[in-house]
Structures are given as C-alpha cells and as structure tokens.
Design brief:
By secondary structure, the protein is an alpha+beta fold. The chain has a single domain (14-124), classed as Beta-Lactamase (2-Layer Sandwich), CATH 3.30.450. It has five helices and three strands. It has helices at 14-21, 25-34, 38-41, 47-60, 102-124; strands at residues 63-66, 73-81, 87-96. A three-stranded antiparallel beta sheet has the order 1-2-3. Strand 1 and strand 2 form a beta hairpin.
Length: 127
C-alpha cells in the first residue's frame, strides 16, 4: 500500500532502485545476497530481475517502476548524491500509468536528472 511516509527496501520502488543502482557492483551484490524481496514484494523482485532493472537504470541514469508494487501506479527516480558522491536520496515522480507513456518517459527522465543534478550541486555548496 502506498501512503505518505511509506518506506520500502532498496530495489522495490523507483527511489530505492535508483539509489541501489548507483552503488558499486560489490555493494549491490552484497545487498541482494542478504535480502529476499520476493517474500513480501512478489516474484517481480527476484534478485535476477532487480539486477536487470539495476542495469537498465545505470544505462538510462534514472529508474522506472512500471507498477510493480501497486498495479497502475508508476514511478521514476533520479539519484541525489552527498557531497562525498554517495547516492543517498532520490527525486521521484509517481502517478498513474497513463502519465508515463513510453514517448514521455525520456523527457520525464531527463527532467528528473536535471533537477536531481541541480539539487546535488546545492548540497555540495558550503553552508
């Protein structure tokens, strides 16, 4: 169930997938070897499926969750990095499937990346 403040493990929703995807391979593998996401989130969250989504996210630079948690509810996310370069947060878009048509996803992903990059740069500024 989705609600404000809901928390999900890495690799389940778009925010956790993009953060996981920006970690080094070793950390991704260590994580996937210690969790069973299928028990609570179903067969779409088998380690090999998460690995495939990690690869796609790395290729695109942003993640897409095509209704894997709630049917018809899509999400996209871009990572926001600490001043040290670690992925720590995500800027996300969520909505109904019809708002994430294939022809719009590239544009939405580019906007997410632009704004996540800007936010990362703000966080790098001395306070």
């Amino acid at each position: 169930m989705l609600y404000e403040g809901a928390r999900f493990p890495l690799g389940v929703v778009s925010a956790g997938l993009v953060v996981l995807s920006m970690l080094p391979d070793r950390e991704v593998e260590d994580y996937l070897s210690t969790v069973d996401l299928t028990a609570e989130w179903g067969p779409a969250h088998r380690a090999e499926d998460v690995r495939a989504r990690v690869a796609r996210t790395r290729e695109d630079g942003y993640s897409t969750n095509p209704g894997l948690v709630v049917e018809g509810s899509w999400g996209m996310a871009a990572a926001v990095f600490t001043p040290g370069g670690e992925p720590a947060w995500a800027l996300t878009l969520t909505g109904v499937e019809s708002r994430f048509r294939e022809e719009r996803r590239g544009e939405l992903g580019a906007l997410l990346l632009k704004e996540a990059h800007a936010l990362t740069n703000v966080l790098r500024q001395p306070s």
